[in-house]
Amino acid sequence: MNDVQPMILLGPDDVDALATSAVGLAAAAETARLCGEGTIKTGRVQVNGDISWMRIMAGLVDDLDLLGYKEFHRVGQRVRYHVHLFRQSTGDPIATIDGRRITGLRTASLASVAARHWAGTAPQRVGLIGSGEEAKEGLRALVGAINVSEAFVYSPTPANREAYAKEMTLETGTKVTSVAEQNQVMNSCDVLYVATSSHNEPFLSGDELGSVRFIAAIGSTMPVHRELRGGVFLACDEVVVDTMDATHESGDCIEATELGWDATSAITLGNYLMRPPLPAAEGRTLFKSIGSVEQDLVLAYYLAQEAIRTGRGTEITDVASLRIMR
Is the pTM value of this prediction over 0.85? Predict the structure, then answer.
């Protein structure tokens, strides 16, 4: 049966042009709301080979009439990401979108939505641990979400942190200072964004938090990965998670539980946004993120809608023919 529907292709240049902090924050807030209502269904599968692997994560988002999946695969050092969106009510295609920016942007945006709820309009000093792409997305989103007065960055490689400070000062208009020791960041900021590879030993303990009152930790997403020692969770008075899966899928959460942290005390971001935040004077707040497919799908959908509004992307005839089954 011939029922051809147009769809949009968004390549990397399109996504870079569309991926503003405003779009990311709007999508993140929507995701938190939808997850709080419990109407999203998800699933995932991973296939591993000798030199390659592929992961597919799928979801249904009823409120947006959306179904789709994110696919990414790795062969050696080569990695590619795509997100495919369809209309849930008809199965018609909406878009195929390059996914390189999506993971970092949705992660940074969710953390920044949590930080915005905590900070309100008060000026905040921001500290960053890490100087890679995730740390760049983090500062972009935070500058778009809260009143950042200044920022400090630490990473083990001097050249990397110096380059980060220079680049992000120019890009965001916020003064970013490179510091030589991690504790200089901890003693100079109110909001801490932790964005490391987390493949090595955890580097932050509960007795090293200095002046920090709000922590966003986004680097440890699997049981074998840790960036925070478990004591950080015990040193915080409120723990917010993007998904409850974080409490048993992240290595730092697992260690925290082994040390006595009650994982059932964590609250989801959707519920956190519906109640007053813990004031800084009354304790520390930790936002822990591992990511989930509905975050990718909602952000991809927002990017597709922005592409339609601004005329970005390439419209093509659907490549998947329709079959009517009995």
Answer: yes
